[in-house]
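Reviewers of the previous submission asked for a worked example of the structure-prediction workflow described in the proposal, so we include one complete record here. The input consisted solely of the amino acid sequence. No template or homolog information was supplied to the procedure at any stage.
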Amino acid sequence: MIAVWWARPADAGPAHLDLLSDAERQRRAALRRPEDQARQTTAAALLRVAAGRELGQAPHSVRVERACPDCAVPHGRPVLPGTGLHVSVSHSGDRIAVVLGRGGPLGVDVEHAAPERDVAGLSRLALSPAELARGVPDQVGFYTYWTRKESVLKATGDGLRVAMTRIEVSAPHEPPRLHHYDGRPEVVAGSSMYTLSPGTGYQAALTVLDVAGPVEVVERDGSVLLAGHQGDGL
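From that input alone, the workflow returned the following structure tokens.
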């Protein structure tokens, strides 16, 4: 089973700030906008509280590594070494997603469908020729494409090093599926993709790799989980 925990930036309090590592505190201090600090704090705290719940550990004892493959700054994808848990984190606007599972590498992406963005222009930068041939998508369709692709890139760990135009996914009105990934047929063969439910005004997707078939995905209220954390206990 894969658990998707949803929370909001306002869910973080002083007890959750205490869960952050020194590196995470430094990253938080470097963020200028209070809303960005709140998102970063809530995401980091929710990861530790959710992982501690799964592992039977106090949240403050959960070790999170964020090594970056391109530099020495610890801002890469989160890893829980030695636990067997795969994790992924995403946040946008008023939504924060933390995903935990044991099946294989996974990636989650949530996006606020901001109405002021130039969807037509962004589509030319993010969609493959085959996807563009289906027609320029509306706002919901574009963010469906985007979150599906971003979830794949996060699951593989490729991130922004691979252009989204090299990936082809199913049309927004179709069930989520990865159709093509340039030079990575094994990713296509071993992936499962899921549409998530972040709420009105948002789109979200999850990709899981190295699985033999569909897995159970459960979406849960991370706000309740965070509210139950009052300190160093489980």
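The first strand starts at residue 2 and ends at 7. We consider this example representative of the routine output the project will generate in years two and three.
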